[in-house]
Amino acid sequence: MPENKSYRLNPKKKPSWLKKKIEYGSIFQNVQSVLESGRLATVCEEALCPNRGDCFSQGTATFLILGKRCTRHCSFCAVAFGPEGLPDPAEPGRVAEAVTVLGLKYVVITSVTRDDLPDGGAGHFASVIDAIRLKSPKTLIETLIPDFRGLETALDTIVSACPDVLSHNIETVPRLYPLVRPESNYQRSLDILKRAGECDRSIVLKSGLMLGMGETREELCAVFSDLSSSGCCILSLGQYLQPESENHPVERYVTPHEFEELKEIALAKGIREVASAPYVRSSYHAFEMYTALKNNPARNMVQSSYRIE
Q: Over the stretch 123-156, which tens digit does the pLDDT of each residue have?
């Protein structure tokens, strides 16, 4: 199956399918107000997510804990670099209060990477989960975690807190890690998913990739296989968009048709739910993906007949 190369020549000019109008209605303003009053951050804002208008308008958000500054400097990411002190012990309570006020059925908790903390912030994650469960016991919780430098005790802390979904983004193919994730390790990220599944077989494992950074289709196919072997059930595939001029450049724009093809390939590899489209991000429509998985427990447990050329 040949790779679509139509949009390689001028990646700075966005194609028509990436032109998006952001709506700022009353629900958006309400979410923004709750976040501001609770002194809470969202990855939607800090990472300049193009879907923040959609998510806020639907009354959802992905909470960013442990500060707004990261100890790693990945070239694809817009989050600020440099640690900013110890975790705020009052933050778990404020997050739980916001979840309650907004009436969220499903919440995603993520963080900046905090290599400066002995446990990478895992204990703080667990405190947030506990606080939400105390105030809003019916709310489903997804944790989108960093790699904790491969520290098994940190991962065990997260798993022991029993999130409904544990998500860790693989982000790109192994060859590009030195360029876009120089302080991370591809195998380490796979091992996080595998170990979490071995520790708690009831936990739903999830990952995501951004496309258009220079990867090939063959490399993506290999990553899909690796993720499936590691127990990943849900996968998101979206178009990488360069946040600032100093970030890693966009190598090409993947067409909507190719996103559909890649979805079928990932399903054929054994991943059970796949969201694949230009504006898909790891937390976008997370509740719908989780619900689809739970409503179709046997889906894709047998290899699809989709042909990969």
A: 999 999 999 999 999 999 999 999 999 999 999 9
Range of the domain at 147: 21-295
SS3 174: helix
304 lies in a domain? Answer: no
CA distances from 33 to 41, 77, 86 (A): 12, 26, 25
Provide φ and ψ at 262, rounded to 5°: -65, -35
**3-class secondary structure, 80:** strand
Is residue 43 scored above 60 in pLDDT? Answer: no
* CATH code (residue 92): 3.20.20.70
| Number of folded domains that form the chain | 1
> Are the beta carbons of 259 and 276 closer than 8 angstroms?
yes
Question: For 23-34, what is the mean pLDDT?
Answer: 69
b/e string for 54-69 if b means 16 or more Cβ within 10 A? Answer: bbbbeebbbbbbbbeb
Q: CA-based angle 260:266:268, to the nearest 5?
A: 105
